[in-house]
Amino acid sequence: MQGTPRLDVALAQLRPVVGEPDTNLATVEAVLAEYEQADLMVWPELFLCGYTTMQAEALAETLEGTRVGRLRAAAKRHATAIVMGLAERCADGGIANSALAIDRDGRIAGCYRKIQLFGDEAEAFTPGNALQIVDLAGARVGLMICFDIEFPEIGRALAVGGAELLVSVSANMRPFGPDHRLCVQARALENRRPHVYVNQVGRGETFLFTGESCHADTAGRVRAACPPHTGRVVLANVSLEVETETRPDYLALRRPVPPVGY
Question: How does pLDDT run across 14-40, given as a tens digit for each residue?
C-alpha cells in the first residue's frame, strides 16, 4: 500500500450449503481464484459448514484439520487474506461459532469466538471470552460476528485496542436487516474506523438470510454494498485513513467516563 493505506476487500455474499463443508470449501477456492486482486476476502458467519445450530457438533473443524489446511493453502496460493466463519472444535471440547483469520501467506492470524450468541446458538455453541485484533494484509483488523455488532462496547473496545478496520461476518435474517445496516454504519462512525460487513443470503436450516453486505467508511457512509437476497461478490476499495476535515477523531477526544450519579 502506497500513500493513504487502502485495501481491496472482496465481500463474498454467497449462500453455503448446510452440512456440506467440502462443497462450500470448493466455492471458496473458486472465488479466490476469480478475485486474485483482492487483498482480503470476507465470508459470512459459519460459511464453511452452513449456518446451523442443529449440526454444529458434527460439522465442527479443528484449526489443525484438513479443511482449514486447504483454506490456508488457497490464501497463500492467491496471496489473499481470508476471514471465514466456521464451527470450531475447541481444545476443551466445546464448540465455538468462530471467525478464522488467515493472512496472505497462509498463516493463521487468529480465530475469534463469538461472544454475543443469538437465540438457539446459546444451546449449540460456547461463547467466546476474548476479543481479537489480527494482522491481515498489513492492517490491524478487529473481528466481530453478527449479534456482536449490536453491542457498541465491542466495536469500541476493538477500536481503542488499535484496530484500523472492523470486520463483521454475519448470518442475519428477516426482519433484522435494517438493524444491522444501522449498526454497521454506527460502529464505523462512532469509532471513526471503516467497517466491512458480510452477511449470508438465501434460506438456511431455519432462517431466510437477507444479504445487504456493505462497507461503511469512517464517516459512517456506505461506500460499497451487495443487493439484498442476491448471491454476489462485491469488491470494495477500503481506505484506512480517518478523515478529520468534517468530523473529529472521536477516539482521540475521549475523556474518562464518570460514574452514574443518582
Answer: 999 999 999 999 999 999 999 999 999
Is-catalytic flag, 245?
no
The set of residues, in sequence order, having a beta carbon less than 8 Å from that of 102 and lying 6+ positions away, is: 71, 72, 75, 81, 82, 84, 108, 109
Instruction: State the Cα–Cα distance between residues 205 and 189, nearest whole angstrom.
Output: 34
- Out of 111, 114, 164, 226, the active site residue is 114
103 vs 13, 78, 106, 178, 232, CA distance in Å?
Answer: 20, 11, 5, 31, 23
Cβ-based burial of 255 (10 A; exposed 0-12, middle 13-18, buried ≥19): exposed
DSSP for 65-112, please give it: SHHHHHHHHHHHHHT-EEEEEEEEE-TTS-EEEEEEEE-TTS-EEEEE
Spot the catalytic one: 146, 183, 214, 226.
146
- Round to whole Å and give the CA distance between 34 and 57: 32
pLDDT in tens, 68-99: 999 999 999 999 999 999 999 998 889 999 99
d(CA 138, CA 160): 18
Q: Both ends of the chain: CA-CA distance in Å?
A: 51
3-state secondary structure of 127: coil
Residue 146 known to be catalytic = yes
Decide if 76 is catalytic: no
**Predicted TM-score (pTM) of this structure:** 0.96
The verdict on whether omega for the bond into residue 175 sits within 30 degrees of 0, i.e. cis, is yes
> What are the percentages of helix, strand and coil residues in the chain, rounded to 5?
25, 30, 45
Q: Please, are residues 6 and 38 in contact by the beta-carbon 8 Å criterion?
A: no
Give the DSSP letter of residue 146. Answer: G
Q: How many CB atoms lie within 10 A of CB 253?
A: 7
Task: Report the alpha-carbon distance of residue 106 to residue 41 in Å, rounded.
Answer: 13
